[in-house]
């Protein structure tokens, strides 16, 4: 029987961005597996709705479910919240993020869009993981057979720049880079406690936010991604949550949800650890042969789109 590297029963979990979408679904699945869950987000109404739903999934009498309204882009408030907790969490999921008005070609979005997208996707994850790590170092576990975990959420977009994601892709690439750095820094404290860092790379998955995003996406971006439904690799939020937890239980550092993302990741993994060295090396080799053809295809599609766009302006 394979070893379970991610124990949640009886442990405390914070889900930053846990009121809606993937955060909500992960909260449901983790509560159903026996975790005590605290969801954190900005919207009080959405938080309370999700908290009430989580109560329906409690498995044991000692489980707790909490919700906290918090602006994750406010470093001082995030620090204050983590310090105020009676005990530090065992597990942190960083799920806040996404896009709003920031989708669009780089020349068409504003500098405020660039700033807000980086804050929503990168700083929101960096601030709370920083506060949690500092609390962990001040309060190492007295005795625990299980590691503490920080789970970052990047995106397939962190591995592939596409026109229309000029504000979004750098924020997710930065999240992946933070995970890489923090994974290594966690080794500094190995004699004191075991801290595991992970980063997941979901592609398109279906939530209200996804459909709202589709309405704002440039036609070129939707064409490259595979149409209105986000392409054949699009998944339900339940599938993404399940695959994330399965990857954590297998002890994976970098977690992918589909074959396209797995090829991209292994094509540009660099010095990041490999979960299955031989398999990942083979996938990296395949990716190095396959993805250049896709890049040429995407470049041609973009050039044709630009020609039509400029012709329309001239008319």
UniProtKB/TrEMBL annotation:
What InterPro entries does the database record attribute to this sequence? NAD(P)-bd_dom_sf, SDR_fam
This protein's name: Steroid dehydrogenase
Source species taxonomy? Eukaryota, Fungi, Dikarya, Ascomycota, Pezizomycotina
């Amino acid at each position: 029987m394979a070893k379970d590297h991610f124990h949640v029963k009886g442990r405390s979990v914070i889900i930053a961005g846990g009121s809606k979408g993937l955060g909500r679904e992960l909260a449901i699945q983790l509560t159903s597996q026996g975790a005590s869950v605290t969801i954190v987000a900005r919207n009080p109404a959405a938080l309370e709705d999700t908290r009430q739903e989580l109560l329906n999934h409690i498995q044991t009498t000692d489980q707790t479910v909490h919700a906290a309204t918090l602006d994750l882009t406010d470093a001082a408030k995030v620090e204050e919240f983590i310090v105020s907790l009676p005990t530090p969490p065992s597990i942190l999921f960083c799920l806040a993020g996404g896009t709003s008005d920031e989708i669009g070609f780089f020349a068409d979005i504003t500098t405020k869009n660039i700033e807000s997208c980086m804050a929503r996707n990168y700083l929101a994850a960096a601030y709370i993981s920083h506060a949690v790590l500092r609390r962990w170092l001040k309060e190492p576990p007295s005795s625990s057979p299980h590691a503490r975990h920080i789970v970052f959420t990047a995106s397939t977009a962190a591995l592939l720049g596409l026109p229309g994601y000029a504000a979004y892709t750098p924020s997710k690439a930065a999240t992946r880079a933070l995970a890489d750095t923090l994974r290594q820094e966690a080794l500094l404290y190995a004699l004191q406690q075991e801290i595991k860092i992970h980063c997941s790379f979901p592609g398109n998955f279906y939530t209200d936010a996804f459909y709202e995003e589709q309405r704002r996406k440039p036609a070129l971006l939707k064409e490259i991604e595979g149409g209105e439904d986000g392409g054949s690799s699009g998944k339900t939020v339940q599938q993404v949550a399940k695959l994330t937890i399965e990857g954590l239980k297998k002890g994976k550092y970098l977690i992918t949800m589909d074959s396209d993302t797995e090829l991209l990741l292994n094509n540009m993994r660099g010095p990041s650890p490999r979960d299955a060295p031989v398999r990942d090396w083979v996938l990296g080799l395949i990716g190095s042969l396959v993805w250049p053809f896709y890049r040429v295809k995407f470049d041609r599609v973009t050039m044709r789109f630009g020609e039509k766009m400029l012709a329309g302006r001239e008319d």
